[in-house]
């Protein structure tokens, strides 16, 4: 067995390293063998795992709905052997007919939430009657803290409303411009609009200024992907942001008919998943990234749907974590983040519950380009409350995204970071995965993809070393990665040219490496199966 890859072995690769286009499956490649900062998955299988047999491991995917019959996923979807679709709760777990997981945002009539409130909208709705009074007298320290959060939520709502209205105006302008250009061009050609046809038309009528302008606009719409589908989807999101996400009068629990303020009111939702998967596509993408890490089908995906456009309810997060733990998941992937948390205590208790049961939680650091160590940039869920930095457990990994490029761009430009708040980085750009409607494509990028990749890595560690503890899995992932001290771009509002050493962007300072992780596990944590 080859030794762990040391950083000194890769120093020479950083000099004049160039990648002109994204290599397919670059995230699985090795920095020494392929000169790409992937997780060395191919190397791990070729040299260590090839002759080993892993135990199947369940990864709970807390996300949007999942296309469970997708050709690239159907063999990796978890099945609850104790349950049948018969209208009965066969396994007596409080969820009827949950044969593959649970959809917390739908119901058995086929209805599914697509748009829900932002969390700050919910906070304002909850505390408006209390703090809107100008003569309110604070009765406790908790009152004061809630008021601070309420004021922050109000500021955010007003700012977002302004943006939302401008965004709707923008897409309406784009749509009108697109329609006007197409109507004018239709007077001259009746074939499909392609760049070649438009270029030919441009040459035929060089002095027709109106037509030339229309051709230029239409050509740009084609180049930048402004199809009718894209424009209509953009407009829908912009409109619903105003009508639902930011609307204090909108009730986003009509479909479930539960009480979101009562954690003991559970069992709402549905066992159905293949609903709205084209629109709510994120879960299908993440399921593919996670399952693809297991070359021998070692990984089973347990879909737990809680996400729509807007923010996840803390109640759904907490119940989904508990469902995952109670039904055998060893890893929980949460590729989402929000700025506020209305019931953080419920989530922290669920995280502690997972820790007690030896379950790892992997969370995305989000895509704002922020330093999460600054209080104003806090993201939820996390493993501590928003008033101190004391972690409630040792089973939570917060993940940033790295690129296939070295030097200044090793940190993905969109990724959040923080030497206190982010634990480790993983590849998160241009990852080939499953897409809705039985398709496969490249996910452009996000810390979501990086989180999903690490969830797959953790699952493999559990698969081949089933008696390993959750704290050991976390330790291995953080400490066996590859450390890079290259300077990367971390611009701020005050300093647009700011640079930071990559190894100062997270607690570990590293990018996860599954080959090193397995070598370490072989040395330290070999247990009788």
UniProtKB/TrEMBL annotation:
It comes from the Bacteria. GO terms for biological process: proteolysis. InterPro entries: Peptidase_S8/S53_dom (IPR000209), Peptidase_S8/S53_dom_sf (IPR036852), Peptidase_S8_subtilisin-like (IPR050131), Peptidase_S8_subtilisin-rel (IPR015500). Keywords: Hydrolase, Protease, Serine protease. Residues 54-481 form the Peptidase S8/S53 domain. One of its GO terms (molecular function) is serine-type endopeptidase activity. The active site is at 63 (charge relay system), 282 (charge relay system), 448 (charge relay system). Belongs to the peptidase S8 family. This is Peptidase S8/S53 domain-containing protein. It comes from Polaribacter reichenbachii. The lineage of its organism: Bacteria, Pseudomonadati, Bacteroidota, Flavobacteriia, Flavobacteriales.
């Amino acid at each position: 067995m080859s030794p762990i890859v040391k950083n000194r072995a890769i120093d020479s690769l950083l000099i004049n390293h160039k990648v002109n286009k994204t290599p397919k499956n670059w995230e699985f490649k090795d920095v020494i063998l392929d000169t790409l900062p992937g997780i060395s998955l191919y190397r791990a299988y070729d040299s260590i795992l090839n002759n080993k047999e892993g135990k199947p491991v369940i990864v709970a995917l807390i996300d949007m709905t999942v296309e469970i019959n997708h050709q690239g996923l159907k063999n990796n979807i978890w099945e609850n052997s104790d349950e049948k679709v018969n209208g009965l709760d066969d396994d007596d777990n409080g969820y009827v007919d949950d044969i593959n997981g649970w959809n917390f945002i739908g119901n058995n009539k086929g209805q599914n939430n697509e748009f829900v409130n932002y969390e700050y909208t919910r906070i304002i709705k909850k505390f408006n009657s209390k703090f809107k009074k100008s003569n309110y007298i604070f009765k406790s320290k908790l009152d004061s803290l809630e008021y601070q959060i309420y004021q922050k939520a109000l500021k955010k709502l007003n700012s977002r409303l302004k943006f939302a209205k401008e965004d709707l105006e923008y897409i309406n302008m784009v749509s009108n411009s697109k329609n006007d250009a197409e109507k004018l061009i239709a007077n001259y050609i009746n074939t499909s609009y392609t760049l070649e046809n438009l270029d030919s038309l441009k040459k035929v009528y060089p002095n027709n200024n109106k037509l030339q302008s229309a051709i230029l606009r239409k050509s740009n719409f084609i180049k930048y992907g402004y199809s009718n589908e894209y424009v209509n989807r953009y407009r829908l999101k912009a409109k619903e942001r105003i009508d639902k996400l930011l609307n204090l009068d909108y009730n986003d629990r009509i479909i479930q008919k539960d009480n979101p303020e009562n954690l003991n009111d559970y069992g709402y939702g549905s066992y159905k998943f293949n609903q709205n998967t084209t629109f709510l596509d994120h879960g299908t993408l993440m399921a593919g990234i996670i399952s693809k890490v297991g070359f021998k089908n070692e990984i089973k995906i347990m879909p737990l749907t809680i996400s729509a456009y807007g923010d996840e309810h803390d109640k759904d997060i907490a119940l989904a974590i508990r469902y995952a733990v109670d039904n055998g998941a060893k890893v929980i992937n949460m590729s989402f983040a929000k700025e506020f948390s209305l019931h953080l205590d419920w989530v922290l208790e669920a995280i502690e519950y997972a820790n007690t049961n030896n379950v790892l939680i992997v969370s995305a650091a989000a895509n704002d380009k922020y330093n999460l160590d600054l209080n104003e940039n806090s993201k939820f869920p996390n493993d501590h409350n928003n008033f101190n930095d004391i972690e409630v457990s040792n089973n939570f990994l917060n993940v940033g995204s790295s690129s296939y490029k070295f030097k200044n761009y090793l940190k993905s430009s969109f990724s959040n970071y923080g030497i206190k708040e982010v634990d480790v980085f993983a590849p998160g750009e241009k990852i080939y995965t499953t897409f809705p409607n039985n398709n496969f494509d490249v996910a452009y990028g996000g810390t979501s993809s990086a989180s999903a990749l690490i969830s797959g890595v953790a699952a493999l560690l559990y698969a081949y070393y089933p008696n390993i503890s959750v704290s050991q899995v976390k330790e291995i992932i953080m400490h066996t990665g590859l450390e890079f001290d290259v300077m990367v771009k971390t611009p701020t509002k005050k300093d647009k040219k700011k640079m930071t050493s990559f190894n100062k962007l997270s607690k570990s300072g590293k990018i996860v490496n599954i080959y090193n992780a397995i070598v370490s596990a072989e040395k330290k944590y070999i247990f009788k199966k």
